[in-house]
Design a protein that fits this description.
- The chain has 447 residues and is of the alpha/beta class.
- The chain has three domains: 209 residues, no CATH class; 94 residues, Translation factors (Elongation Factor Tu (Ef-tu), domain 3, Beta Barrel); 131 residues, Nucleotide-binding domain of ferredoxin-NADP reductase (FNR) module (Rossmann fold), CATH 3.40.50.80.
- 47% of the residues lie in helices and 16% in strands.
- The protein contains 13 helices and twelve strands.
- The strands form two sheets. A six-stranded antiparallel beta sheet has the order 4-3-6-1-2-5. Strands 10-9-8-7-11-12 form a six-stranded parallel beta sheet, sandwiched between helices.
- Strand 8, helix 11 and strand 9 form a beta-alpha-beta unit.
- The longest helix is centred in the middle third of the chain and has 31 residues.
- It is elongated and about 80 Å long.
- The structure holds flavin-adenine dinucleotide.
């Protein structure tokens, strides 16, 4: 009974949320159970401010767990949702941490002297440094693109600033011994600090070390339509990763996984063939522009699989509808070839938006899949050739209404495209009566 419960995704999902809430509220619980100095009269606002600081700090420490790509957590929600949660909770934690000293300053204006960096005690200096690091994190994350900060340096700086913010925040909390003097409080914060440190070691050292033990070799780089290259990898000395079609992995090419310069890509090949892994990579920037020049024999490393964007989670559905835009076709092709190899007989619909007919990535492969599957393909072109008599323009409600089944709730829908198209399609599907639980989306712009 217990193990059945623990396999239920809703129960597992709710348990993780419960664990999260427990951890961030634990410092408060201990504060309530063991008040600092029972005889001393302390204002409500002082206690309230401390409570906010504690919750904010615990939330910040938990960000290490949220971004450590822990498979079991990731498998419950998907990386999209976790990163979304990471972003929102960072802002909430930031507000708590910002309001924490503001209340102190208003409640007792003398504490403003703590802002004098030269004369202030170390515990106050640490708070200032942690807060400045946090401000830098928030600004560079929300406005990274407007500030023209390239992804890789941003990611490195983000990690360093996070360690500074949490490290100095903990230092500040420990320095204000008033609240941490008691045994359990010391144990709690030391535990949180050690857990954050362990996650750092796990992400930076242990995970890359495991990746190093399971290398891949590039077998071929095959050009595709639409400025896309298929990178074909073969596991070397191991059996490869077991994945579900539609999932993705973080790819490191040529360099050591310890360098942590990795990029996420959907696996574009069949989940039934672990010997030959393919990624369809569109040339859009620094890294992806180099794929076409990668030589066979080059070493590659993978961290994965990740994601919940997969037909495998919906075995009991009557059929699937795939809605792709451009390079968003890669997880779909993986799901389609896998379904074909499994001789799946359910009706499948692919609505696929591309710029021109020549740009349609995997055009011929998709056509060939029609022989093996009950598959209908609707191409939608933004710049159609003159003789084109089929769908043109954008995938909107009217277009979807023409093709999706009359009983839309009997299918599961997978959407992967540019953000604007995904948002529009999601709203249109809701309007057409598709329940929210039947709509699954994969975002390619994590940051
Ligand atoms: C879950 C997922 C699956 C994806 N699957 C595919 C796929 O199958 N095929 C494909 O062509 N693309 C896919 N992408 C997009 C791909 O990861 C980016 O296009 C690629 O990382 C861009 O790197 P670049 O250096 O060439 O471009 P840049 O110009 O440096 O970056 C362009 C944008 O890509 C994002 N990006 C860059 N580097 C990284 C990184 N290391 N990690 C995360 N995001 C980054 C940033 O938002 C950046 O602004 C996927 C993305 C995600 C999140």
């Amino acid at each position: 009974m217990k193990s059945l419960l623990m396999k239920n995704p809703v129960v597992v999902g709710v348990s993780w949320i419960g664990a999260y809430l427990l951890i961030i509220l634990l410092p408060l619980l201990i504060l309530l159970l063991y008040p600092p100095t029972p005889n001393e009269q302390r204002s409500f606002w002082l206690e309230f401010s401390v409570a906010l600081g504690f919750i904010g700090l615990a939330m910040m420490a938990m960000q290490f767990a949220l971004t450590a790509r822990i498979n079991r957590v990731e498998a419950s929600y998907g990386i999209d949702l976790i990163l979304q949660f990471h972003r929102y909770t960072s802002i909430v934690a930031f507000l708590f941490i910002l309001v924490h000293p503001l209340i102190l300053f208003i409640d007792n204006p003398q504490t403003l002297q703590l802002l004098n960096f030269i004369q202030a005690p170390w515990r106050a200096r640490m708070a200032v440094i942690a807060t400045l690091a946090l401000i830098a994190i928030i600004i560079t994350s929300i406005w990274r693109k407007q500030l023209n900060i390239p992804y890789e340096p941003w990611r490195t700086a983000h990690g360093i600033l996070a360690v500074i913010a949490v490290g100095f925040g903990l230092g500040h909390a420990l320095g204000v011994g008033n609240y941490l003097g008691l045994f359990w409080k010391g144990v709690l914060w030391t535990g949180i600090a050690l857990a954050a440190l362990w996650l750092l070691v796990y992400v930076r050292l242990i995970k890359p070390w495991f990746m190093l033990k399971k290398p891949y070799l590039v077998e071929a780089v095959i050009p595709q339509r639409g400025n896309v290259w298929n990178l074909v990898l073969r596991p070397r000395g191991h059996e490869g990763i077991r994945f579900q079609p539609g999932q993705f992995a973080w790819l490191t090419l040529e360099i050591s996984p310890f360098r942590m310069r990795e990029h996420p890509f959907s696996i574009a090949s069949s989940a039934e063939n672990l010997e030959r892994l393919e990624f369809g990579i569109k040339a859009v920037g620094d890294f992806t522009n180099t794929i076409k020049d990668v030589k066979p024999g080059t070493k590659a490393y993978l961290d994965g699989p990740y994601g919940v964007f997969t037909t495998d989670l919906y075995e009991n559905t009557a059929g699937f509808v795939f809605i792709a835009g451009g390079i968003g076709i890669t997880p779909m092709i993986s799901m389609l070839v896998t379904l074909a190899e499994r001789q799946d007989e359910r009706p499948l619909l692919l609505i696929y938006a591309s710029k021109t007919w020549e740009d349609v990535t995997y055009r011929e492969e998709l056509e060939a899949l029609k022989d093996k599957l009950d598959l209908t393909i609707v191409h939608v072109l933004r710049k159609p050739p003159e003789e084109w008599s089929k769908e043109v323009g954008y995938v909107d409600k009217e277009l979807l209404e023409r093709y999706i089944p009359k009983r839309p709730a009997t299918r599961n829908y997978f959407i992967c495209a540019v953000p604007k198209m995904m948002d529009q399609v999601e709203v249109a599907l809701h309007d057409l009566g598709v329940p929210v639980t039947n709509i699954h989306m994969e975002h390619y712009n994590l940051v």
